[in-house]
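Reviewer 2 asked us to include a model.

Predict the structure of this chain.
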Amino acid sequence: MPATTLPSIVFACALSLAPLAPLALAEQEDEALKAKAVTLISKLYDLDRDSVVIESLVKSQAIEGAKELTIRTGNKRATLYLFGGKIIVGRAYDLDYDPYQENLKKISLKDRPSRGSGPVLLVEYSDFQ
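Predicted model (structure tokens):
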């Protein structure tokens, strides 16, 4: 192989591997985030560090710019949000979310008078002697 083609091959290989460097860095950052989250959760809730299992770490659909971390300990599962060096423990709700909507869908008012302009009869029982 001519000596002039070897540097060009090495350069071509370096260019093809260059996009993988940010991915490797992101994976290292994710591993560091996971380790910090597990340490904090185990301290906050007095858990054995080995009992906290990470199920997933993905980009959050609920909070823009955050990462969603799902952990499990025993038979309990929790979702945490990692955002700007902070951890949010709990559930993220959209501001338009109505917590009563599911129950309201179960109640049927069909054939039950509830509103209208019909007559109303009031009966008062005031003396039972």
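Residues 53 and 72 are 5 Å apart (CA to CA). Confidence is low (pLDDT under 50) at residues 6-21. We have added this to the supplementary material.
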